[in-house]
Each structure stands twice: as structure tokens, then as C-alpha cells.
From TrEMBL, chain A:
One example GO MF annotation: RNA binding
Organism: Drosophila lebanonensis (Fruit fly)
An example Gene Ontology CC term for this record: nuclear exosome (RNase complex)
Family affiliation: Belongs to the RNR ribonuclease family.
Underlying gene: LOC115625097
Protein name as it appears in the record: Exosome complex exonuclease RRP44
UniProtKB/TrEMBL annotation, chain B:
UniProt keywords, alphabetically: Cytoplasm, Exonuclease, Exosome, Hydrolase, Nuclease
PANTHER family cross-referenced by the UniProt entry: EXOSOME COMPLEX COMPONENT RRP42, EXOSOME COMPLEX EXONUCLEASE RIBOSOMAL RNA PROCESSING PROTEIN
Identification of the protein by name: Ribosomal RNA-processing protein 42
Keyword flag Hydrolase: yes
Xref: SUPFAM superfamilies: Ribonuclease PH domain 2-like (SSF55666), Ribosomal protein S5 domain 2-like (SSF54211)
Pfam families: RNase_PH, RNase_PH_C
Gene Ontology process terms (BP): exonucleolytic trimming to generate mature 3'-end of 5.8S rRNA from tricistronic rRNA transcript (SSU-rRNA, 5.8S rRNA, LSU-rRNA); nuclear mRNA surveillance; nuclear polyadenylation-dependent rRNA catabolic process; rRNA catabolic process; TRAMP-dependent tRNA surveillance pathway; U1 snRNA 3'-end processing; U4 snRNA 3'-end processing; U5 snRNA 3'-end processing
GO terms for cellular component: cytoplasmic exosome (RNase complex); nuclear exosome (RNase complex); nucleolus
Cell location: Cytoplasm; Nucleus, Nucleolus
Domain of life of the organism encoding this protein: Eukaryota
Lineage: Eukaryota, Metazoa, Ecdysozoa, Arthropoda, Hexapoda
Length: 981, 296
């Protein structure tokens, strides 16, 4: 049977088209039930009699049909392994797909789980359940009707199979079909049509065996809510927003909440470079970090400046009524900020949020806040991410969840509620447990970290893996060369190896050999897609989340010593002055002679008694690297610094034992130089071969305003920083040396690093050639080629390079600009998140390290703020805030300061003065570090002043001298910032 | 025009028949052959009609599009005719064989429609000077059995009657720019007023007499024909265009006779057509009729 579906559609050019699709109706679609005696079932039964849910509403076996709103809102309930024998109609599935792709993905996962007995019934193509749209019927009404028709059909269909004598003799109860819907209108109509119907919450609450399932119900409205007064202005409707946007009355952008001040946020709007400031609870108007919002710009006279005050929300309780005091406090804060801004010339465009274009709510990790009232089911959830507001949830298991990390999702945020409403999703594990905390970090940074699926693993090469004669024939045989790899200790994913040998003409041949990952990961298969989605390997302290399965990352691709491996080689012929004479790229088979650590390599170079081939080639390489580095510096490459530390982790408890700053040797720089050279060579090659679709990496020059804090800070110290070009910046940085403060130069470089933009991947066709520039490296063109095991971008580059030299076949996607651009976007996002996750992990371990310890450490003032000093501890690469003005509650534990010690902040030279003690930026201080665990979720390191000694403020050192504990002044170190590469 | 091989004797026979007011198929000079009309049969088009007048077979499809009104007529929508003479109709249409005929048909239709009061182009305008509907009336000639003009104009009118324009609402943006929003309900559509849409009536002169609806054989006997475009206004038929075909000439009195005959026949034809169309619409209702085919 055939019918036609008609609809009109507006094209992008504004034309209106009538579109007609053929729609075939069938009579051979099975109902999927094992009771049925009519349908032809080509599959195993999805709906079986084995599962029996005890519901007080429906006291007989029943199947469930879900309405779209139930799937959309109650997906967390569905994901629990409780509901079975569920019929999902294609009507519902299509609507879900249309409304939320993430929920669509989740429901599909449930459907594919055989044990859950979810059956997809193709009602849209079944001859008895197809509903043609009636005149004067909205699309929504039609879908509701289709759902009712299908439910009714199912019920009758099953009844007809259960009237037979044999069935009645068996004494079984008749199985019925129940429709779950949260739509009142649909429910009323269903009741009128004699369909068994219930709302999701009624049904879930009626399940006597699963009382805790009710926690996961999403509440669009909390039951028996006392109608509080609206606390927020209403949002505009979507139509009003669209109109406003078109008329340019409103602006659209993504909202970013401030980490420091919960009453402040920023909206990134295209036309405004710095984004638009949003201040105050009413202006924020229920936006949550990440949402796409519509804002209205305030008149210039009401513009404000970002407050420099750190404001954290105090404990609140589920009663949800803001105390007078607190509202008052907020008002004062706002007024202060506004008043300050009037004086200040630094006012920025300010606006208020009038509507939400798209919510970007996700699931949030956090903890339950202990409730004051016993036996209440309403609780306040405190997310781990400070940018997210507290969330009100209903749960009956608060006692068990009390000391656990849990995941909660937001359902809605009505006008009359101070906090968004949400529901409990699942528990991650006990608080403070290493695994739980790592899980939190991964979830909060959106790092895909589940196990590789069977499908992905199926694309791995079969073990035992051997190299076939064809492989040898296709590749250049470099097994006889003295190739070695140099990596940090304990590295198992070795993706680069080097060699250098003297040629007969006196020149040197240098080769960089990169693991040939693209040989194993073929474009387009599940393995490739998974790797592309992950984008990068994420390194946490003591844990690595691989981009590709371990078999590849630590075995087949890893260029371990003494084993034959496939490599992608980049070989140069250089003269003794490191000028490139020739370069070539080819795939090869190599056999690394030795996998060394940086330290071993350094020893080998320095030990003049060693005179084997490896030592010789390393010395050549080292010498060339120095020349290359010098040349690069002369071009204006920046030496940046960021404090990086390493934890020695206990192998069993995974708790950090010792902290050390990463050691840098000549060999680090040696490997780095050749990797840079390889990357640049490859970038030039692929950009020339594929002018439209080469994957490159650029590092834009930061806008001059970015440097303002750096220039200011240096000026107070009497240094001028030139930021005109990379070269002048590099020179002026070199000049910033203070004899009495050996760490000064490093600090200036740390500050410089913070002025930089993020380096990003891009597609060559999308930008002008001048914009390819890599600012940090002072290279006109750059890409990533050398770490394909841990970065997907490198795999893309490998494929391009292989295609250009004819070593591998091309495929359509390789040259498609749009899909490559999307990939680049994802890679940029994943890289950023991986970095943040790495930092969060370091932070977590620092806290663990300081648990129960108190140490005095030497540090430096990095910034002077209005109410605090930003202090950097070089030994731990740690940065923290030393509060000078105490909180009203004396939360930071030194309320005694309130009475006697007054700090005055000088705006002009950014100093804090107390009596005769003056704090400048970069001044050395000694601080006492301890861990404040009063807030279990945000344990924080507390900095207290030891030296210079201010009576009534500094820590009383007592008999023990501060000098005993103070660390020796750290050695001066500079390090090229890895992340900016 | 399709070539019909006719001997001198046959021609004389036809001529005598016309003189006697008793034509070969038994009709009088003012009679039409039986017609079959069906609308809404092309589901992809916005409107369609198929007309079969004895052996003449015409299929008309109407496609709609959004366009910008012409600068000189900012309040008018647009209408475009396209005639395709299928080679199925007669071998002479193969290649570019039918293009002259097609051009002639397009021209006469266009003239008739563009006559003042004939077709209300204003009804196709959405926003004066900015946006209007443009209708493409595609006419396919499947078989030629004489009297193409009449058949084509009848089918075109029926197709226009059947045409459903999606309901469009305009929202005003800044700087006078408007944006169109279409209704998502496929049943929510507007119709085109067809009361004034003209019909063409071919009045054929054979010997000294004029007749309507000539068959292919009669056309071969005629030296000159007059195509009379008849439109309705306030329930009164009026002339909206004329057009002569054939090589011969016409006396002034004959011409006047022709016009009067055409006008009265056109008036009658139009009323009958509208009546039948309305009947069909009522019978079918707003929903598309089930299509009968081997899959049903």
C-alpha cells in the first residue's frame, strides 16, 4: 500500500516548495510480543512474559507505550534497569530525534540493549496504525493521535491472541498495554478512547518494588509547591527573540558564568571583542553556563566594569527563600561595583539576558548539601563546577548520598525559584576516592572515557601481528639504521624516533621516524570515528585515557626498542650548519636500536668514553638542535614558561607521594627541535600539495590589549616590554632580569604565557596565507605530525602526506573541506578540555598531597589584587590567593585581622600597604600552606603569610624559625610551554 | 497543426455537412464533442488538471514559486505558460517540430490572460514591490484531436482552480524588509480566484459557415479560424482577446458573426466548467482522494 506525505518547505533562498514523498504501508510488521499468534516475527521476541513489574495501578501484566514527552523528560528513569517490555513507536522516536539528538542517542542505546526488552514498533508504516494528517490538525496533534491509535491497536491485537481456549486454560492473566504520557490533553483523549493511561510519575511511584526510582523522575513542576513570588523577569518567547535578533534589538551569544563571582557572567557576541558583561541576579535571569542566550544591551550610562571581588555563594537551604540579608548583600555588592565603575574608565558593554535561545544543560557532578531539616526529600545540590548554580532536587536517599559524588541534571528553572530544579541521575562513588575524583574530572571536562566498544576493537589487527613481504616491498627498509627514541621515563606510547648519520659527502642525514598509526586506522571505520571523536589522549596524574586502544598505542604503533615497526619517516640531508639541502618523506620499516629516557640520552652524550653509533648520532643531533634552536630564537620564537610539576604516585593507593618540578635537559630540547623541524617541513609540504584542505596549526598574535597586565606589571619594576613583534617581545623578555630576584624572569614569562592566545587547528582553505602564522614558534606555517598515537590531528596530517607522496590511497573525505573543518573544531575543543582536565588532575593531587600537612614555602607575589595577593609557589608550581581583607563571616579563619590590620590598596602602582610593609608584584614572600577541608567539595589550599611578618596578620611562627622549613630558592628554569606548540 | 491526410472528396463531404448543420459526427455547428476532466491528479504539482476532448488529450500542472514583482507592475504577481507538444501526439512534433505551435498557444493564452479584467494578477502579489507568487503553468499536449486552443484553455483554468498556494504570513523587519513564514499545515492554503480566468473558443470558418470545436479533419478543411478569448465579469461574458489563425481572410460581417458566436459559446462553456469543478471539489473534499493503482 502506498500513500503520500505532503509538506511545504522554505528553501534558503526564500523560495517555497511543495515536497511530496511516497510513504509505503505494510502488513508484515510484527508486534514483537511472544503472546501474539498472528504476527510474523522475524526476530527474537522483544516483549516477553518473563518480566513482571508490580504496579499498584495496573495489577496485571502489561506492556508500556511511551509518549514523546516521557522519553524526553524521563530518560534517566528509562535508563535505570527497571522498566521492561516497553514499546517505542517510530512516531515517538522521530519526534525525539527532532527535539534532542543527545536523548535520541541515549534511547537508542537502551533499545539496543537486548536485556531491556525495548521494542521499536514501526507504527508509521503499519497499515493499521498509520495516521494521515487531518485538515485543521497540528503536527503535534497528529503524532499524539498516531500514538493513541498504535496503543489501541496493540491492546486489541494482543487481546485477540489471548481469547483462545488454550490460553484461558493456562490461567494466565491477560496482558494489556498501558500508555504513559505527561500531556494532559493526550491523556484525556486516551481515557475517552478507553486506553489504559497514566502519567510517568504516577506509574513510577506505583512500582512497589522500586521506590528509589522516583528520585530520577524529572519534575517539570514540584508538587505542592507554595507559590512563591517570581524572582526573575520572564523570558521572551522564542518568536519574540527571533524577531528581536532580526531587528538587531537583541544580541545572541553563549553565556559564560564567572568562576569567581556567582553574580557575574559574560556573553560572547560576535561583534564585541571582549564579550558583554552581565551583572546581578536579575540580569543573569536564570542563564546557566554554556547556554545560548539573547541579551539586550543596556544604555551606555548603565555600563559597568567586571568587579574584582571574589564572591562565592554561601550555604543556602532548600527552603529557597532568599533571606533579606542576602539580597541586601547582593545589592550592596552591585552598587559598589557600579560606583567603582563610574570612576573607572574600564567600563565595558553591559547587558541583561532577556531570553534563552538554547539550553546547553548537561549532567553535573557534585555533592548534596547537608540539610538542616531531617527527613526532608528536598535537597540542594552543589555542583563541582563553580560556574553552575546550585540545583534543587528531590531524593529519598539523601542519607546514603551524603558523602558521595553524584550526578544531577537540570529539568527546568521556573521564575519563582531561586535555583533550577533537577533530579538525581547516579552516584559516582565515595567522596575523596581517587577513582571517583578522576571520574569527576573526566565528566566535567567532557572527556570520552568509556571502554572501546566491541565494534571499535574489531578493527584492530589480529594478533599475532606480523609484517608480510608485501609490507616490506611497499616500504623503505631502514632497519639497519641506528635509530633510537628518547622519551620521558615510563613512556609506553613512543611515537617518535630519530637517527643521524654522516654521508660520504660530509653532510649529515637526519631522520625523524613517526609511528605509522594511519596504517592501522583506516579512514571511516568505527576505530577511526572513535579516535576522531576522542581527538586526543588525555593525561591525568597516574592515569592515561587513550585515544586509540592499547594494543595500538602501547604495542603495534609504539616504536619500542629492538622490534620492527612501521614508521612514517621524514629524512633531511643537512650540512654541518644545519641547513637543509634535501628532504624526503616516505613510509618505512624501522627497528629502533634503543628506547632511551631523556636522562639516559644525556648521560650517553656527556660520557666521552662512549663511542658507539648511537652516541655519535646523538651528539650530532644535539649539536644540530642547538643551531636550530638559536636560529629559531633569532627569528623571534618565544621562550614561555608555565610552572609544571610531576607527582610521584604511590603505585597502590594512587596517592601522590612527592612533588617535583619537571626536569629539563638538553635532550628534551634536542628532541623538541627535530619534532618542530619535522612538523614545519610537513606543513610546508602538505600546504603546497593541498592548498584547500591541509590540516595546519596556527597561533594567532594576541591583540595588544592582552599584554596590558604584563606591561603594567613590568613597568612597576622598571622594565619596558615591547609587544610590537614576537622578536621585540622576546628581546625585551630577555632583558627582564633582576639580580636580587632570580625567579623574576620566569615569572615575567609566566605572565607572558597568560597573554597568549590559544593555538588552534584549521584547514588551509579557510584562511588567508598570512594568517597561517604561528606566533609562539615564529614559524610561517606549522602543523602537528609527530604524535599520531595521542593526537588525531597528526593522523589527518599523516593521511594527507601519504596521499601526496602516493604511499596511501586517497578517499573522498580526505579532501572535503567542510568535514575536515568540523573535525578541526572538535579537535580544538578536545585539546582544550584535555588541558583543563590535566590541570584539574594536578590540582586534585596537590590537594591530596597537602592533606593533613602544613608547610611553609617560599613564594612570589604574582599579582596584587584589591583584596588579595596572588602568590606563586615555584616548588609546586602552585598558585593561590592570600586574602588580605577578611570575609564578613571570617570564613578564611583570620578574623583577628579585622580589628588591627588594615591594608590599603594603591591603584596607581598596584601595591598593598600595611604599616611599613609594602607588597609589590614579584616580591618574595613566605607563606604557610594548609588544606582547608571545610568545604568537602572544594577543598582548597589556604595561604597564610609568614614573612614579611605583620603583627596580628601573619602566622605566629613561634619557636621554630621559618627559615628552617622554607625551601631553598628554586633554580631558575625556563621551559618552552608545551601547550602552545 | 497536426497533419491529416484528407482527399478532395472527403473535404467536400465535410463542407456539405457543415452547410447542412449536420457534421460528420452528428453535431450541429454550435456543439462540442464530449469532454472528460479530472483535477488534482499530479501530486507533485500545486495544482493539475487533465482534459480529454474526444481525441485531444491535455495535461496541465501548476508549479508555484516566490519571486520579486516586476518593477513596472509592483502590485502584480507573475504567470508563465509553457507548452510542450509531446511527440506522442503526432510524429510531426518530434524534435523541435512542435515549437511553433507551442509558441502560438502560449502567445494566445498570454494575450487573453493579460487583458485588463481578465485575470487578476494582484491576487498573486504577497508584498507589493517585494514578493509575489510566480505560477508556472506547464501544459503538456499528449494527443492531438483538433481544437487545441479550447482544450488547453479549459485545462489551464481547471488546473488553476485546483491550485493550492501554501498560506504565507509576512513579518515586517527593519528597513522595510519582510520575511515570509509558511504555515506548517499542508491543508492550510489559499485558492486562486478563477471567475475571470479567460477561456479560448476557436471559431472555425468552413465554407461560408462558422462552427466551434472543429475536429482535426474539419481543421484541415478550414482556411481561417478565429480564436476568441472570453472572460467573465459580473456574471457577464466579455471579450478579452482575439487571434486569427490560418492563411485565409475574413469578411467583416463574418468576423462579427464569429465573435458573437464565440462569446455566447464561451459564456456557456465557462459556466458549465465552473459548475462541474465545484461539484468535483465537493465530492472529493479537502483530503486528497486515494489514488487507485496496483499498490492499493
Amino acid at each position: 500500500m502506498q500513500t503520500l506525505r505532503e509538506f511545504t518547505r522554505k528553501t534558503k533562498r526564500g523560495n517555497i516548495l511543495k515536497i511530496v514523498r511516497e510513504h509505503y504501508l505494510r502488513d508484515d510488521i510484527g508486534c514483537g510480543s511472544d503472546i501474539c499468534q498472528h504476527c510474523f516475527q522475524n526476530d527474537v521476541y522483544a516483549l516477553t512474559a518473563d518480566h513482571d513489574l508490580q504496579s499498584s495501578l495496573f495489577k496485571y501484566p502489561h506492556y508500556l507505550v511511551l509518549d514523546t514527552n516521557v522519553v524526553l523528560d524521563q530518560i534517566d528513569v528509562l535508563e535505570e534497569d527497571v522498566l521492561r517490555n516497553v514499546i517505542i513507536l517510530t512516531t515517538v522516536l522521530n519526534e525525539v530525534k527532532h527535539k534532542s539528538s543527545s536523548i535520541y542517542k541515549r534511547i537508542n542505546e537502551i533499545i539496543h540493549d537486548r536485556r531491556r526488552n525495548f521494542y521499536v514498533f514501526v507504527n508509521e508504516h503499519h497499515k493499521d496504525t498509520y495516521a494521515d494528517r487531518e485538515p485543521d490538525e497540528t503536527a503535534n496533534d497528529r503524532n499524539d493521535r498516531a500514538i493513541r491509535i498504535a496503543t489501541k491497536w496493540y491492546d486489541n491485537h494482543l487481546k485477540s491472541s489471548q481469547v483462545s481456549k488454550s490460553f484461558q486454560r493456562s490461567g494466565r492473566q491477560v496482558t494489556r498495554v498501558v500508555l504513559l504520557t505527561d500531556d494532559a490533553g493526550n491523556r484525556a483523549k486516551a481515557e475517552a478512547e478507553d486506553i489504559l493511561v497514566a502519567t510517568a510519575s504516577e506509574y513510577v511511584k506505583s512500582l512497589s518494588d522500586h521506590p528509589l526510582l522516583a528520585d530520577k523522575l524529572s519534575h517539570k513542576t514540584f508538587a505542592n509547591e507554595k507559590q512563591a513570588l517570581p524572582q526573575y523577569p520572564p523570558h521572551l518567547s522564542l518568536r519574540e527573540i527571533l524577531e528581536g535578533l532580526k531587528q538587531k534589538k537583541l544580541l545572541q551569544g553563549s553565556f559564560q558564568a564567572s568562576r569567581e563571582n556567582y553574580l557575574e557572567g559574560n556573553v560572547n557576541v560576535e561583534q564585541y571583542e571582549k564579550g558583554i558583561l552581565i551583572q546581578g541576579r536579575e540580569s543573569l535571569n536564570r542563564a546557566v553556563d554554556g547556554d545560548i542566550v539573547a541579551i539586550e544591551l543596556l544604555p551606555q550610562s548603565e555600563w559597568s566594569a567586571p568587579s574584582e571581588i571574589v564572591l562565592e555563594e554561601k550555604n543556602v537551604y532548600a527552603d529557597d527563600l532568599p533571606s533579606e540579608e542576602r539580597t541586601e548583600e547582593e545589592k550592596v555588592m552591585l552598587q559598589q561595583v557600579r560606583a567603582a565603575a563610574v570612576v573607572d574608565a574600564e567600563r565595558t558593554p553591559t547587558g541583561r539576558i532577556v531570553g534563552i535561545v538554547r539550553r546547553k544543560w548537561r549532567q553535573y557532578c557534585g555533592i548534596l548539601q547537608p540539610s538542616l531539616i531531617e527527613d526532608t526529600s528536598r535537597h540542594i545540590f552543589v555542583p563541582a563546577d563553580r560556574k553552575i548554580p546550585r540545583i534543587r532536587i528531590e531524593t529519598r536517599q539523601a542519607a546514603t548520598l551524603q558523602n558521595q559524588r553524584i550526578i544531577v541534571t537540570i529539568d527546568n528553572w521556573p521564575r519563582n525559584s531561586r535555583y533550577p530544579h533537577g533530579h538525581f541521575v547516579r552516584s559516582l562513588g565515595p567522596l575523596g576516592d581517587m577513582n571517583t575524583e578522576n571520574e569527576v574530572i573526566l565528566l566535567e571536562h567532557d572527556v570520552p572515557h568509556c571502554k572501546f566498544s566491541e565494534e571499535v576493537l574489531s578493527f584492530l589487527p589480529k594478533m599475532p601481528w606480523t609484517i608480510t613481504p608485501e609490507d616490506y616491498a611497499k616500504r623503505v627498509d631502514l632497519r639497519d639504521l641506528y635509530i633510537c627514541s628518547v622519551d620521558p621515563p615510563g613512556c609506553t606510547d613512543i611515537d617518535d624516533a630519530l637517527h643521524c648519520r654522516e654521508l660520504e659527502n660530509g653532510n649529515l642525514e637526519v631522520g625523524v621516524h613517526i609511528a605509522d598509526v594511519s596504517h592501522f586506522i583506516r579512514p571511516g571505520n568505527a576505530l577511526d570515528k572513535e579516535a576522531a571523536a576522542r581527538g586526543t589522549t588525555v593525561y591525568l596524574v597516574g592515569k592515561r585515557i587513550d585515544m586509540v586502544p592499547e594494543l595500538l598505542s602501547s604495542n603495534l604503533c609504539s616504536l619500542v626498542g629492538g622490534v620492527e615497526r612501521f614508521a612514517f619517516s621524514c629524512v633531511w640531508e643537512m650540512d654541518k650548519e644545519a641547513n637543509i639541502i634535501k628532504k624526503r618523506f616516505h613510509k618505512s620499516v624501522i627497528k629502533s636500536k634503543r628506547a632511551m629516557t631523556y636522562e639516559e640520552a644525556q648521560v650517553l652524550i656527556d660520557d666521552s668514553t662512549q663511542d658507539n653509533e648511537i652516541a655519535k648520532s646523538l651528539r650530532h643531533l644535539n649539536r644540530l638542535a642547538k643551531i636550530l634552536k638559536k636560529r629559531r630564537m633569532d627569528n623571534g620564537a618565544l621562550v614561555l614558561a608555565s610552572p609544571e610539576i610531576r607527582f610521584q604516585v604511590d603505585s597502590e593507593t594512587h596517592e601522590p607521594l612527592e612533588v617535583e618540578v619537571k626536569q629539563l635537559r638538553d635532550t628534551n630540547s634536542m628532541v623538541e627541535e627535530f619534532m618542530l623541524l619535522a612538523n614545519i617541513s610537513v606543513a610546508e609540504h602538505i600546504a603546497a600539495e593541498f592548498s584547500e584542505c591541509a590540516v595546519l596549526r596556527r597561533h594567532p598574535k594576541p591583540p595588544t590589549t592582552n599584554f596590558d597586565p604584563l606591561i603594567k606589571a613590568a613597568r612597576y619594576q622598571g622594565f619596558e616590554i615591547e609587544t610590537e613583534t614576537g622578536l621585540s617581545l622576546s628581546h625585551s623578555l630577555d632583558k627582564c632580569v633582576k639580580a636580587d630576584n632570580p625567579y623574576f624572569n620566569t615569572m615575567i614569562r609566566i605572565l607572558t604565557t597568560r597573554c597568549m592566545m590559544q593555538a588552534v587547528y584549521f584547514i588551509s582553505g579557510s584562511l588567508q596565507k598570512e594568517e597561517f602564522f604561528h606566533y609562539g614558534l615564529a614559524a610561517p606555517i606549522y602543523t602537528h605530525f609527530t604524535s599520531p598515537i595521542r593526537r588525531y590531528s597528526d593522523i589527518m596530517v599523516h593521511r594527507l602526506l601519504a596521499a601526496s607522496i602516493g604511499a596511501d590511497s586517497t578517499y573522498a573525505q580526505l579532501l572535503e573541506r567542510k568535514s575536515n573543518e568540523e573535525l578541526c573544531h572538535n579537535l580544538n575543543y578536545r585539546h582544550k578540555m584535555a588541558q583543563y582536565a590535566g590541570r584539574a588532575s594536578v590540582g586534585l593531587n596537590t590537594h591530596l598531597f597537602f592533606r593533613g600537612k602544613e608547610e611553609d614555602e617560599e613564594g612570589y607575589v604574582l599579582f596584587v589584587r584589591k583584596n588579595a595577593l596572588q602568590v606563586l609557589i615555584p616548588k609546586y608550581g602552585l598558585e593561590g590567593t592570600l586574602y588580605l581583607k577578611t570575609d564578613k563571616d571570617g570564613k578564611d579563619g583570620h578574623e583577628r585581622a579585622k580589628s588591627t590590620v588594615v591594608f590599603t590598596f594603591s591603584e596607581e602602582d598596584h601595591t598593598q600597604r600595611c604599616g611599613n610593609v609594602v607588597f609589590h608584584s614579584f616580591d618574595p614572600v613566605t607563606v604557610r600552606l594548609s588544606l582547608d577541608s571545610s568545604n568537602v567539595q572544594h577543598e582548597k589550599l589556604v595561604f597564610r603569610l609568614v614573612k614579611p611578618y605583620i603583627k596580628g596578620f601573619s602566622v605566629e611562627t613561634g619557636s621554630e624559625s621559618a627559615a628552617d622549613v622554607a625551601a631553598p630558592p628554586p633554580t631558575k628554569k625556563t621551559k618552552k610551554n608545551q601547550k602552545k606548540k | 497543426m497536426a497533419y491529416v491526410a484528407l482527399s478532395e472528396a472527403e473535404k467536400t463531404f465535410i463542407l456539405h455537412g457543415v452547410e447542412e448543420d449536420y457534421r460528420c459526427d452528428g453535431r450541429s455547428r454550435r456543439d462540442y464533442r464530449p469532454m472528460e476532466l479530472e483535477t488534482g491528479l499530479v501530486s507533485n504539482a500545486s495544482g493539475s488538471a487533465r482534459l480529454r476532448l474526444a481525441n485531444t488529450d491535455i495535461l496541465v500542472g501548476v508549479k508555484t514559486e516566490i519571486d520579486v514583482p516586476h518593477q513596472l507592475t509592483p502590485e502584480f504577481g507573475k504567470l508563465e505558460f509553457f507548452v510542450d507538444c509531446s511527440a506522442n501526439a503526432t510524429p510531426e512534433f518530434e524534435g523541435r517540430g512542435g515549437s511553433d505551435l507551442a509558441q502560438e498557444l502560449i502567445l494566445s493564452l498570454k494575450n487573453a490572460y493579460e487583458s485588463p479584467f481578465a485575470f487578476d494578477y494582484r491576487s498573486l502579489c504577497l508584498i507589493p514591490g517585494q514578493q509575489c507568487w510566480k505560477l508556472y503553468i506547464d501544459i503538456l499536449i499528449l494527443e492531438c484531436g483538433g481544437n487545441l486552443y479550447d482544450a488547453v484553455s479549459l485545462a489551464a483554468k481547471a488546473a488553476l482552480f485546483n491550485t493550492k498556494l501554501p498560506r504565507v504570513t509576512a513579518t515586517l523587519l527593519d528597513a522595510g524588509i519582510t520575511d515570509l513564514i509558511i504555515s506548517d499545515n499542508p491543508y492550510d492554503c489559499t485558492r486562486i480566484g478563477i471567475e475571470t480566468v479567460p477561456l479560448l473558443v476557436t471559431v472555425c470558418k468552413i465554407g461560408d459557415f462558422c462552427l466551434v470545436d472543429p475536429s482535426a479533419e474539419e481543421e484541415a478543411c478550414s482556411t481561417v479560424s478565429m480564436v476568441v478569448a472570453v472572460s467573465q465579469r459580473n456574471n457577464e461574458a466579455f471579450l478579452s482577446g482575439t487571434h486569427m489563425t490560418g492563411g485565409g481572410s475574413m469578411h467583416r460581417d463574418t468576423m462579427l458573426n464569429c465573435l458573437q458566436l464565440g462569446l455566447s459559446i464561451g459564456d456557456y462553456l465557462d459556466k458549465l466548467l465552473v459548475k462541474m469543478l465545484k461539484q468535483e471539489q465537493e465530492r472529493v473534499g479537502p483530503k486528497r482522494p486515494k489514488i487507485v493503482g496496483f499498490l492499493k
